[in-house]
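Question:
Write out your own:
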Amino acid sequence: QVQLVESGGGLVQPGGSLRLSCAASGRTFSSYAMGWFRRAPGKEREFVATISSAGAVIYYADSVKGRFAISRDNAKSTVYLQMNNLQPEDTAVYYCARKEQGGPIYSQAQRHYDYWGQGTQVTVSS
């Protein structure tokens, strides 16, 4: 059983930064692409960013491109989301997820992810 545990959320002022971490259990972390998603109040969960298993391919939602950066450390079985210039519309619960084996090397579609963390709250407010 795979467990994903997010951390690093909190309250930040507009224009501020946060770094989210997602630690994965298991010994095969380096074999899987990972993704970050978020659910804002009253909205559906949406794609934020994804990174391929070796970190060579990265893809972002247009809404975060140029402000957020996804990365991973396979030796630590951890994926990160560096969030800069945060805005109130970035307020959401952020989830990391593991992409299932097979298919495209990365994906923004939630149906391609088989394990999810419990989420961490990010609130951007003055």
User: Anything to note?
Assistant: The chain has a mean pLDDT of 95. Residues 21 and 80 are 5 Å apart (CA to CA). The two ends are 40 Å apart (CA to CA).
